[in-house]
Specification:
GO terms for molecular function: nicotianamine synthase activity. This is Nicotianamine synthase. Keywords: S-adenosyl-L-methionine, Transferase. By secondary structure, the protein is of the alpha/beta class. It folds into two domains: 92 residues; 214 residues, Vaccinia Virus protein VP39 (Rossmann fold), CATH 3.40.50.150. It is built from eight helices and nine strands. A nine-stranded mixed β-sheet has the order 3-2-1-4-5-7-6-9-8.
């Protein structure tokens, strides 16, 4: 590990010690300051490979991802409650401090989706939508204006807060549905969706994430699109990483790594169009391991400084 990487890891570990000693992760001056420092530390492009760090740092990273997830949930709940107090909540979304990031991420994900989707999706599922379902709202309002969005979250309070945000809007209230359910208990309904989005914090570690992906592979419609959030470089201290090889049962299409303030990488994959009978027996043998190393740089947009796309060739040979 280079000297620069060591300094970065040391700084992240210091911030973890400070964050883990906080009495509460609810939005406050101290919480906001520490998480802002953490994000700014992890944001610049970095060659650090979190899988090669020592066990102590690996454990800190796992705990830090959970703390980030908890803080993010509390932040979203706070702002969802605040926005829900307005007569027209959607007119005030810019009060959320990261709203502009969601606008950028929504445009990015729409552009990626458009490249790989032959038609405008009729129904989209968003798994892990939370109390402030900004991805669904941005996509439904700005990009996919005829699509219906089915938002899944395990927390009934998150769903009731989210529903309050769109209920006064005559259009979105008709096109956005909220389901209180653990996605692992949803099976045949998944066949109805052209696209399934999986939020970054559904499956907080590798094993949980893979269990969810395998479940989606089993029940999604053949040929349907899966979009996932991941992380790259030092940003992997903030969010779980999905490796292309984790997408058993899916054809990996591409991954985009933003280099600006949009933190999450975006992965797109397609459920294999042929019926697969071996899902319960494990899918590892279906995907050639060598495909994970056949990665080449490619950029479909004119955001050269913002996005690096890693594309795996579309057809498995």
């Amino acid at each position: 590990m280079g000297c620069q990487d060591e300094v970065l890891v040391e700084k992240v570990c210091e911030l973890y010690e400070q964050i883990s000693s906080l009495e509460s992760l609810k939005p406050s001056k101290d919480v906001n300051m520490l998480f802002t420092q953490l994000v700014l530390t992890c944001m610049p492009p970095s060659p650090v490979d979190v899988t090669k760090l020592n066990r102590r740092v690996q454990e800190i990273r796992a705990k830090l991802i959970r703390l980030c997830g908890e803080a993010e949930g509390l932040l979203e709940s706070h702002f969802s409650t605040l926005l829900g107090s307005f007569e027209k909540p959607l007119d005030h979304l810019n009060l959320f401090p990261y709203y502009s990031n969601y606008l950028k991420l929504g445009l990015l994900e729409f552009n990626i989706l458009e490249q790989h989707c032959t038609h405008v999706p009729n129904k989209i599922a968003f798994v892990g939508s939370g109390p402030l379902p900004l991805t669904s709202i941005v996509l439904a309002s700005n990009h996919l204006t005829t699509t219906s969005f089915h938002n899944y979250d395990i927390d009934p309070l998150a769903n009731s807060n989210a529903l309050r945000l769109v209920s006064s809007d005559p259009d979105l209230s008709q096109r956005m549905v909220f389901h209180t359910n653990d996605i692992m208990n949803v099976s045949h309904a998944l066949k109805d969706y052209d696209v399934v989005f999986l939020a970054a914090l559904v499956g907080m570690d590798k094993e949980e994430k893979i269990r969810v992906i395998d479940h989606l592979a089993k029940y999604m419609a053949p040929g349907a699109i899966l979009m996932l959030r991941s992380a790259h470089g030092a940003r992997a201290f903030l969010y779980p990483v999905v490796d292309p090889c984790d997408l058993r049962g899916f054809e990996f299409l591409s991954v985009f790594h933003p280099t600006d303030e949009v933190i999450n990488s975006v992965i797109i994959a397609r459920k294999y169009p042929m019926p697969i009978h071996s899902l319960d027996q494990g899918l590892g043998s279906m995907i050639l391991p060598s495909k994970c190393s056949e990665i080449q740089t490619f950029n479909p947009f004119n955001h050269g400084n913002m996005i690096e796309e890693l594309a795996i060739e579309e057809h498995l040979s």
